[in-house]
Amino acid sequence: MITFDSSHYPYPSQRNVTYGKNGMVATSQPLASQAGLDILKKGGNAIDAAIATAACLTVVEPTSNGIGGDAFALVWTKGELHGLNASGPAPQSISIEKLKEQGVDEIPKFGWIPVTVPGVPAAWAELSERFGKLPLKEVLQPAIDYAREGYPLSPTLAYFWERGAAAYSSVLKGEEFENWFGTFAPNGKAPKAGEMWRSEDHARTLEAIAEANAEAFYRGELAEKIDAFSKKYNGFLTKEDLASFKPEWVKPISVNYKGYDVWEIPPNGQGLVALMALNMLKEDTFHSRDDAETFHKQIEAMKLAFADGEKYITEESEMSSSLSDLLSESYGRERRGLIGEEALMPEAGEPSKGGTVYLATADGEGNMVSFIQSNYMGFGSGLVVPGTGIALQNRGHNFSMDPDHDNALKPGKRTYHTIIPGFLTKGDEPVGPFGVMGGFMQPQGHMQVVMNTIDFGLNPQAALDAPRWQWIKDKQVLLEQNVPNHLATALSAKGHAVQVTHQSGSFGRGQIIWRDPVTGVLAGGTEARTDGAIAVY
């Protein structure tokens, strides 16, 4: 197991690391964590617990995810790591040409145009069928109960709910958005902290998904309702698009970073960005976390990795540069050679041609799951399918309208995807799942958490609590206010355009579970930047 040496980190963690033996669930919401633990205690495994927790999060944190979103998972079971890509494609009837005929030059954030096929229900069913122990109906029951009976909002959830409702009130105009306000802002306002919220429509939808392993969503009554809603407002999504969708089992990709293998889902996810950045720095020695040189090299590597990611990441079959080239040691060294003493303007290289919830679970049998799902940009497209509680995602906003771009919009194509689960191994042994949600902050959070763990010996909680940086664009860097002042000054001297903020909402929200390979003891950390909680026994 990783040796924790928090002497490298002079600031006290906001919470203590959590230990357990028989099972652990780490999420952004206490009610969801407890639901996952209850499933473990009923005889379910870590996969069952992950599904139960994910389903609960669609109810108890709808500001970040929903039934109408996408999901990815990394599953460690029986000595092997499996990857699941449950991100849905663009509808078959959409195209750049059709949008331009409508006068659309840029894909909007809201409404029907950015809606892609939701993958979340299919992810739950696929994971349950392949690796679960309990019936999906039993696993989804806690989420059904919370949706039907209601629950009191937690403080951070209430803050983002109110902020989202205010934003949507100013931009969502038209009767197609009325169901969103009726669902999430009943009586014209967002619910407050401690106030009860419930959705009978959401409960019935979860029941329909549970009864037939998500068939109702893709080929049954729910698919019919989605199709009818789309047709009414000239949307592109059809029941045929839903019926043809199936999640894809994929081979996870990795780089070796100082003796540990860091694993991500391959494109169309942006986990490649985190791996490219780590690949650049794996031969560097970092003596202190809170050092200007450490921050500078991390930021510069991440900028270069994002430049490549923006240019190349899309459906893997559509990428103009191969994964093996982008992750090669020679290309990593080439990109590392661009990092000097001054901040640079990032540009993509040319290798040789060849807004989300995150949760982690583990059980006493050795199974571990890294799972993430999202509607994108908070509540998503602003569309809620009447009578279902299903908030549809707006993931298509990431497509390019440039037909020559790798990530150009095409019918049936999956776009560059921001949500990424992570996993760490050493040799043939699992260390455990980790993740940091939050749009384009996610690879940046992955890099910082991995380096906090491996380079600086921080325990899971300290690795999450450590103050973060966030690259925005060009030379712009955002620092949390608890980053020491001397670092902000030193980074400015290196040419970074530094802004310090007390708002922690954009710096991501993560979870970590590490397992000791000898004793089986689990060590977990949860995000202090939200209502995070670990349930353990």
From TrEMBL:
Gene3D superfamilies for the chain: 1.10.246.130, 3.60.20.40
Superkingdom of origin organism: Bacteria
Alphabetized InterPro entries for the sequence: GGT-like_enzyme, GGT_lsub, GGT_ssub_C, Ntn_hydrolases_N
Matches recorded under PANTHER family: GAMMA-GLUTAMYLTRANSPEPTIDASE (AFU_ORTHOLOGUE AFUA_4G13580) (PTHR43881)
Name of the protein in its database record: Gamma-glutamyltransferase family protein
Native species: Evansella alkalicola
Lineage: Bacteria, Bacillati, Bacillota, Bacilli, Bacillales
